[in-house]
User: What shape does this take?
Amino acid sequence: FVVSVPGNVESERRDYETLLDGIEPAFAAHPEKLELRLLGPPIGAYGRRIHERCDRLRDRGFNIRTIDKRLDHSEFCDQMSNSNFLICPLRYSTFADTGATEIYSISKGSGSVFDAIRYGVPVMFPEHFLVPGYIRSSSTYYRTASDITKTIGELVTEPSYAERLRSQAHDNAVAFTIDKQTERLSSVLDSVQ
Assistant: This one.
């Protein structure tokens, strides 16, 4: 079961400590069934520390892949297409280039939403992230590391649960076409005129 995390490994945007705290017990319970892929390069000292922690977990026999530089488009597509589940460990807020505070899902979006749609992969977000309605049916949520552990365990041991989320993710991807989004936008614009 392949769990992928798209995006750079950087402290300002993502909380990899909670992610790894949650995934470590899941690995311990299901070592042959689980693979974690961090699909972004490490940024700064924080990114290097997270990679070092992944190295230590790998030394214990856990199947973890990390990368040192940004994947090219075809490599990224291949990794995402071969993922069973995405986790997006977004922090509550980050800083814009201007220095202003941005709040995820309020004043700042996440490319992970569109990755989940594009590749038809179910996704887990932190509870504070307001997930758009068009992918809620294929999304799960966590508040703590133990929530991550529990969900990963259920996905690995309950194939029907994993398949139901995967089917919903596929349906959401099919529904998110340019024509359908144009129709949806036109409807929204008509309602405000």
Summary: The beta strands are 2-5, 35-38, 63-65, 85-87, 93-95, 101-103, 123-126, 139-142. The first helix runs from residue 16 to 29. Residues 53 and 59 are 10 Å apart (CA to CA).
